[in-house]
Every structure is written in C-alpha cells, then in structure tokens.
Write a structure and sequence with these properties.
By secondary structure, the chain is of the alpha+beta class. It has helices at about 85-100, 105-125, 130-155, 155-160, 225-235, 240-250, 260; strands at about 20, 30-35, 40-45, 65-70, 75-80, 170-175, 175-185, 190-195, 205-215, 220, 265-275, 295-300, 305. The protein contains seven helices and 13 strands. A hairpin with a 4-residue loop joins strand 2 and strand 3 (about 40-45).
C-alpha cells in the first residue's frame, strides 16, 4: 500500500535544528511534519499549556516518543525510513482522533490513548489491508450487529460479539449462538466453514445467517461508513467506542482509504437453524490425528433448514 509522503519538500537541517511544516492548517492543534539533522521523519505536537513531564509515554516498535520541555512539544520520531507508509498512517490517525479535543490536555490525553492502541496493534504484527473475503465477512458481521443486536442490547451488544476474542462463532445472546457468513452475488453458490467447531455448540440454539451481497462502485455502503455509523451510535455510552475499536483492531482492521472505496448492498439475508441433519462436519466426525478442517457447503443444501429469527424468548 503506497501513501503520499507528507514530508516531501523538507530539506535536512543543520545540527540541532529541525525542518518543519504545518501538518494541517485546519486542525485546531499545532501538528507539524518535521525532519531532523539525521534525516529522520517526525510528527510534532506543539502545545501551549499542557505538560507530561511526569507521565510515562507509550513505547512503540520502530518509533521514539519523547517530550521536549523547552518547546512544550511531543515528538514522534521514525527510526527507519522504510516504514514511512505505516508512520504516515499513524500520523493521520493521531490527527484525526485529536481533532475534536477541547483543550491541550484533552488533545494530549487522546493522543497518548491512541498511541497505546497502536502499541497493542503493532505488538501483533501491525495493520494490514483485509482481503476481499475478510472485508465482506466483517461487513456482514457488522450489519447483523447494527440491525439485530444494537437496537435490542445497546452497548451490551459489544459483549455479545465473541468472534474477535477467538470464539468459534461470531455472536452469543443468552441461549442463541450466531455464525455470520457473506456470499457475493454471482460467485459460486457455496459458503466456507473454517473449522469443525464453527457449526457446533453443546447446549444452545445455533443459527447460520448468510448475507447475500452485491458490490458497487457507488450507491452502496462501504465497510468504513458502516463502522463510522456504529461508532456514532455507540458514542452515547462511555468507553463503548473504545471497546468497539479494540475489537476491530484485534481483527486486523484499522481505518484506511481502501475501506471507503468498496461499497455493498444487501440483496437478502437467509437464516438457518443448525440442527439435526444439517450439512456440517463436527468435532465428532474427525478421526484422531487430523488437526485442521476447512470445507465448503452448497447453499442449496441449506434451504431445508431455513427459519426466521425469533427474539421473543431471548
């Protein structure tokens, strides 16, 4: 993924000096893209009233974070120029999340909190662009979250979203368990199952929901816009947006321009009850010594198990 280099045009300064330019004239706080004498790229936040002299700053791999007292500024310094695309993404994200801060102290708090999230994300290998299948799958999950769970559970819907924690299925609500799949209209009439545990539970009703999606250049909904809408809906509850973002980050999602460019519409949703002779492979069907199972199910084989979702007893 190639991004624009916002440090373009800066020349290397003399010893002890910085070459800098305002990062965004419309931003209410003074962010600067800068270059030091060693040729290292920097992002500088210059403040008027806040200080963090006694605060422990986040530590990120490949990125030095330091406070400079004489200029009341927080400085982020990139160690290796080969990581410029990632650093550009981090800088844009930090400026985006601090834009609505009400004061220097609030801005500093938001920036440090965001850096801690980046610290956790980078410890897992860093952000990557989700695959086409992963984008559609996450879109379908979040449509279910937005339309089925959020109106009924409010912020508790986040606790029902189990997939980001490594649970075999995507959602659990009381005695109902849900696995969400997407199917791109026009593609082969199958869905992929990633493990023997995905369509098997011991003591709950298991539902498989398949969203049939059409992809558009315009006129649909993008994954990024769907996520922004959910975040707005969650903003009424303290810490809910933060929990939502952490779950997204655990799935490898971080806002990138590519997630705005692909748009989808929902053609239909099919709901199936996974029981009886449902076509599946369970842990009891696998012989000893087989460690991984990934298989496809023809959609036509699912329709005898089609049902409607009844929340009356939930």
């Amino acid at each position: 993924m190639k991004t624009e280099n916002p440090w373009g045009g800066l020349s290397r300064p003399g010893v002890g000096e910085l070459s800098a330019k305002r990062a965004d004239a419309a931003h209410p706080f003074d962010f600067f893209h800068a270059l030091n004498h060693d040729g290292q790229l920097m992002l500088i936040l210059r403040l008027k009233s806040a200080s963090i002299e006694h605060r422990k700053l986040p530590r990120l791999k490949g990125l030095k974070v330091q406070w400079t007292s004489n200029s009341s500024s927080l400085q982020l310094i990139l160690a290796e120029s080969r990581d410029v695309d990632l650093f550009t993404l981090i800088c844009k994200d930090l400026m985006r999340t601090t834009f609505s801060a009400g004061s220097d102290i609030d801005c500093l708090e938001s920036l440090c909190t965001r850096l801690l999230k980046w610290q956790r994300l980078l410890s897992k290998g860093g952000p990557r662009l989700l695959s086409e299948q992963e984008i559609r799958g996450l879109f379908a999950e979040l449509i279910f979250f937005q339309e089925e769970l959020l109106p009924r559970l409010g912020p508790d819907a986040l606790g029902a979203w189990k997939g980001p924690s490594g649970f075999p299925q995507d959602f659990t609500v009381d005695d109902k368990v849900f696995e969400i799949k997407s199917h791109l209209v026009g593609s082969p009439q199958t869905i992929r199952i990633s493990s023997t545990a995905q369509l098997w539970v011991e003591s709950a009703d298991l539902f498989l929901c398949v969203y049939h999606l059409a992809e558009h250049l315009t006129g649909g909904r993008s994954l990024a816009s769907l996520i922004n809408n959910i975040a707005t809906a969650l903003s009424s509850w303290s810490s809910a947006v933060e929990e939502f973002e952490e779950k997204l980050a655990s799935l490898g999602y971080l806002e990138m321009p590519e997630y705005h460019s692909r748009e989808f519409s929902i053609i239909q949703r099919d709901t199936f009850i996974v029981s009886g002779g449902f076509p599946r492979i369970t842990p009891f069907d696998v012989r000893s010594g087989i460690s991984e199972v990934n298989y496809g199910i023809q959609l036509a084989a699912l329709y005898p198990f089609q049902t409607t979702l009844d929340w009356s007893d939930a």
